[in-house]
Design a protein that fits this description.
This protein is mostly helical. The protein has one domain. Helix content is 82%, strand content 0%. It contains two helices and no strands. α1 packs across α2 (24-78). The longest helix has 55 residues, at 24-78. The radius of gyration is 27 Å and the shape is rod-shaped.
């Protein structure tokens, strides 16, 4: 099993195919580990996207509030 995740990058497609046929258990463990890392990374990405969306929404609400306040201020000054 790879000691570091980057060691997997050293394997070619033909190496992986050979490993799949000759070292079934090790191959299955490697693929399971890769799938778990991918799932974890995608969940983090989803969290980040949701966070950014929330921040953008708050920014838009803040800008809208500022515009309303400025409009009200102008109305008060015109009286």
């Amino acid at each position: 099993m790879a000691e570091r995740p980057t060691e997997l990058l050293l394997l070619s497609v033909s190496d992986l195919n050979r490993m799949r046929l000759e070292f079934i258990e090790a191959y299955n463990q490697l693929m399971e580990s890769a799938c778990q890392r991918l799932e974890f990374s995608l969940l983090i990405k989803l969290e980040c996207m949701n966070f950014c969306e929330k921040v953008e929404e708050e920014k838009m609400n803040m800008q809208s509030s500022i515009k309303q306040m400025l409009t009200m201020r102008k109305k008060c000054q015109n009286r």
